[in-house]
Specification:
The chain has one domain: Aldolase class I (TIM Barrel, Alpha-Beta Barrel), CATH 3.20.20. It is built from 14 helices and eight strands. It has helices at residues 2-17, 20-24, 48-61, 80-94, 109-122, 139-153, 164-167, 173-181, 195-208, 223-228, 243-254, 258-271, 285-299, 317-329, and strands at 31-32, 66-68, 100-103, 126-129, 158-162, 187-190, 214-217, 233-234. Strand 2, helix 4 (80-94) and strand 3 (100-103) form a beta-alpha-beta unit.
């Protein structure tokens, strides 16, 4: 009975706020919002100076937002104190130039809600959360999860993070649209890799008249086509390395220059081959991808150290040299060799 009363209270909160949430609480997010890596020192502490340079690297490229403490940010690997440090430095360095989105990714609603509270306290502009994971969940439980997090977020927009490869659950389009209609979700970052599902969300959003519901793709390699069929923007891990390339795709797409958008996308597909450089016989996919991104940023002089969060296996000298060769091929001159 107490649980039912709590559900009713949280539902009533959104009924009272009503449809104005999606139209006045925040503008629709769009453009290029890279999910920032978290720079670490050799002893696994947050490298705040490198983080400041990374943010400057993004802002100078013309990104429209930054997202910290997501998958690329190794948020689930960090302590709560380290997460707070990342938030504090990011909010201070961005200084209102673009929205700062904070990941609130954790296995349970209670833990994710604590991360939401930390994001609110730090001055973030929005929160991004997955469905709960580890325990198998039903769509009704995912619904309750997001309603609870939205209540904790207050005036901050809450975005769903659809990444079934990590969470084990694919967020149904009908659930996302229903949560958007009720003012619970401000949008979704789709990292499912399922193009048909993403296109359905775009179509269902249109049919529902949710003009302020944001749909972002997490793909590095199909941004030009996704923008062409109505996605609002991109949250690309490779955008850490070459944010300007994704900004050019977005600009070309807005101008209707699809040939230019495709040419830039093709160049970035070749650059994305850096994730295939690390030897997968000795490390996992996350170590390879994030290690390659951090190695590239180290070579470009943005990060002081390319280490990934423990227990990830770091790239060796030969692998870093392989990343350097692909940077040069893509027209990005390494500052280090």
């Amino acid at each position: 009975m107490a649980v039912e009363k709590q559900d009713r209270r949280e539902a009533m909160t959104f009924e009272k706020q009503g449809a104005h949430l999606s139209s006045t609480r925040h503008p629709r997010l769009a453009g290029v919002v890279p999910p920032l890596v978290t720079p670490l020192t050799a002893d696994q502490e947050i490298d705040t100076e490198s983080l400041a340079r990374l943010i400057a690297h993004q802002l100078s490229a013309g990104v429209t937002g930054v997202f910290v403490l997501g998958t690329s940010g190794e948020g689930t690997f960090l302590t709560d104190d380290q997460r707070r440090t990342v938030l504090a430095v990011t909010v201070a360095e961005v200084a209102g130039a673009v929205p700062v989105l904070a990941g609130a990714v954790d296995a349970s609603t209670a833990r994710a809600a604590a991360h939401v509270a930390a994001a609110v306290a730090a001055g973030a502009d929005g929160v991004v959360a997955t469905a709960p994971f580890y325990a198998a969940t039903h769509p009704a439980e995912i619904d309750r999860h997001f309603v609870h997090l939205a209540a904790a977020a207050g005036d901050l927009p809450l975005y769903a993070y659809d990444i079934p490869a990590r969470v084990g659950t694919k967020l149904p389009a009908e659930l996302l649209i229903d949560l958007g209609r009720r003012g619970v979700l401000a949008g979704v970052k789709d990292s499912s890799g399922q193009d048909g599902s993403l296109r359905r969300v775009v179509l269902d959003r249109q049919d529902a008249g949710l003009t302020d519901f944001t749909v972002m793709t997490g793909s590095e390699t199909s941004v030009d086509s996704a923008l062409a069929y109505g996605v609002d923007g991109v949250v690309p891990g490779l955008g850490n390395v070459d944010p300007a390339g994704y900004v050019r795709i977005a600009a070309a797409s807005r101008a209707g220059d699809h040939d230019a958008a495709r040419a830039e996308q093709d160049r970035l597909i070749r650059l994305f081959e850096i994730v295939a450089v690390p030897d997968r016989a000795r490390m996992g996919a996350s170590s390879a991808a994030l290690g390659a991104f951090k190695a590239a940023l180290y070579l470009l002089g943005v990060l002081d150290c390319p280490v990934t969060a423990f227990p990830s296996v770091p790239l060796d000298a030969a692998e870093i040299a392989g990343v350097a060769a692909l940077l040069a091929r893509a027209g990005l001159a390494p500052a280090r060799q």
